[in-house]
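Retro notes
What went well: the complex prediction finally ran end to end.
Inputs used:
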Amino acid sequence: MKGLLLKDWYVMKKYCRSYVVIAVVFIAVSLVSDENMFFIFYPCLLCSMIPITLLGYDERSRWVQYSGSLPYTKAQFVCAKYLIGLIAQIVMLTVIGIAQGIKMSAGGNFLPDDFIVLMSLVLIMSTFASSITLPFIFKWGVEKGRIAYYVMIGLVCAAGFLAAKYFNRNLQIAMQANMVLTALVIAGIGAYIISWYLSVVFYKKREIQ
Amino acid sequence: MNALEIKNLTKSYPGFTLDNLNLTLPSGCIMGLIGENGAGKSTTIKLILDMINKDSGTINILGKDNTDNIQLTKEDVGVVMDEVGLPECLTVKQVGKVMKNTFRNWDDAEYERLLRKLSLPDNKPFKEFSRGMKMKLGIAIAMSHNSKLLILDEATSGLDPVVRDEVVEMFGDFTRDENHSILISSHIVSDLEKLCDYVAFLHKGKLLLCEEKDQLLAEYGLIHCTAEELRKLPPDTVKYKKENPYGVEAMVRRSLLSTGINVSPISIEELFVFMVKEER
C-alpha cells in the first residue's frame, strides 16, 4: 500500500497546496476573532475533503481503472484514502490545538475544560463530515458522491455553528454536558471506523469499468 | 503449465453478453485477441484481472484461480490498458518510485533501460505526454517487474510504425523465456500476425475460434473463380464467399479441397473479416 500512499502524496503536493493556504488564513483569522467558530472548524472540513479531492483526480486520470491492474486489493485502495484523510485531520487538529492553546494562554484564559470542549467539537465535525460522505463516493463515484458531500457540509456546518453558540454561551452547562460530549466524540470516531468498513464493502462490490 | 486458462466464462450486461468463453494460453506463447469494437476484448481482460465480477466460469492465471489472492498473482502480471491511467502531475521518475513501492520485484535498472530505449523524458509531467508516449510508459512499467504474463489491451495503438515495430520486437524478445507469455488485443491485426502463436477471434461476445496461427494459415486459403466453378466444390469446403460481377472470392479449407485448384494464402485480417461476415 506504500505505493498508493506515495502516489496520493505526490498528487496532494501538486493539487492541495491551496488548502494549506486557506487553512493558514482561517487559523490566523480564528486567532484574532473571538466570535466566529467557523474559522476554526473550516480547516478541518477541508482536511476531510482531501480524500474526496484525491478520488476525483483518480477518476479523471483513470487511475481507478489502472490501479485495478496493479497488485492492490480494493480494500487497500479504500484504506489508502482513509489513512490520508486520517493523517491530514490529525495534523490539522494538532495545528488548531496548538494555535488555540497559544491564543487562550496569551489571553490568560486557558482553561483545560474549555480547550477539550473546543477540540472535541472540531474532532466530531471533521470525522462526521468524511465518515458520512466517503461510503457514498466509493459506492457511486465522485460525481454523485460529491452531492452527498455538499449536503453533509451544510448540515455539519449548521450543527457546528449551533453547538458552538450553545457551548460558548453556556460553558457551565457544557461542563455538565461532558458526558454528552464524550459520547459524541466516541460516536465520531466510531462513525469513521464504520464508514471505513462500509466503503470497503461498497468498493469491493463496485465494478471498475 | 498454462499461463492462462479461461473456462465457460460468462458476463452479461444489458445489450451485451460475453458468452461461455473458453481460452487457453500455454506458457511461452503469445495469443492475439482479435475483435471489432464492442466484441468483448476489454471485458475479457477486466474479468481476467478481477476488475469486474463474472457471472459464471473460472479463470486461472499462472495456475492460480484469479479470485484467490489476486493481488499476489498480479505481482507476476504486467498490464497495459487501452488508456494508461497515471496521475497527470506525475513525472516518469515519480512513477518509478510509486511502482517501486508497488511491485515486490520492481527492477529499477530495467525501468531505466526501457525509458532510455523508448526515449521517454525523465522530468516531464505525464499530462504533457502524447498518447504514444503514454502507451510507451505503460509498456515500460509492465515490463519492469519481472512479470511472467503480459496482458496488453490495444497497447500498440497510438504508436508510430517505427516504435510499434520496436515494441513488437520487445514483446517477441520477452517470450524467448519459456515461462513468459502474452495475451494481446489489438485492432492492428498486422501486429498480431507478426507476433502471435495463437489467435482468438471474438465477435459480439462469442468466441469464433481459438487456434494456432500457423495451423490456421495452413488450413485456410483464398480462391478466385467463377460462380459455376465454386458450385462444383464440396459444400463444406467453402467457409465464406464474396460475389462480384467478375467472379467469386471464397475462403476455403485447404484440407477438403481436391488438388489442382490454385489457393492463395490468406492473412489473419482477411480470415477474421470473412469469419465475422459468415457469422452475420
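What we learned: The mean pLDDT of chain B is 87.
What to try next: split runs per interface for comparison.
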